[in-house]
């Protein structure tokens, strides 16, 4: 074995023990595809079930609360039911920017959704977006005056899941980001 071959072998062993792939050093890992990021985000949101919804209060202070959203795999929107008298209704009316944070504890993974919310008033749309788990909270399966529905349209997803290969930047801890408006991952 030549000295050059021995040095390459030693380097590959060192890289292997360091947890790095034994590939050429100049080759950077390929970013995940938008479809991979979206699929992982949906799976994490579904596994988490509940999320923290953050709105901006009248004084500019972020306001957080736990909500039980309706997330449907084939849709780009996330649906949130609430009482029309809840503070978040006025907050969203004043500033429709909303953040949702889903944490799936068993998988030690999360998704942060940045988006804009709007009130849905059409009875047919409200009925179509009814979630049976909400029956204990709202009378008349969402047809009563105690039920208001928001549609949240995401413009950015931030995903962190080691188990799915979506790993935060080791230096900055920045998660994998999908800018939905541009259609691709951001670094």
Topology:
Blueprint lengths: L2 H15 L16 H15 L2 E6 L5 E6 L2 E2 L6 E5 L4 H8 L2 E8 L4 E12 L2 H6 L19 E13 L15 E4 L4 E3 L1
Antiparallel strand pairs: 1-2, 1-5, 3-4, 4-7, 5-6, 6-7, 7-8, 8-9
Account of the 3D structure:
The protein has 187 residues and is an alpha+beta fold. It folds into 2 domains: 1-29, no CATH class; 31-186, Pnp Oxidase, Chain A (Roll). It is built from 4 helices and 9 strands. It has helices at 3-17, 34-48, 87-94, 123-128, and strands spanning 51-56, 62-67, 70-71, 78-82, 97-104, 109-120, 148-160, 176-179, 184-186. Strands 1, 2, 3, 4, 5, 6, 7, 8 and 9 form a 9-stranded antiparallel beta sheet that branches. Strand 3 and strand 4 form a beta hairpin. The two termini are 42 Å apart.
What labels describe this entry?
187 residues; alpha+beta; Pnp Oxidase, Chain A; nine-stranded antiparallel β-sheet; 24% helix
Summarize the structure.
This protein is of the alpha+beta class and 187 residues long.
CATH architecture annotation name of the largest domain: Roll
Shape: globular
CATH class of the largest domain: Mainly Beta
Radius of gyration: 22 Å
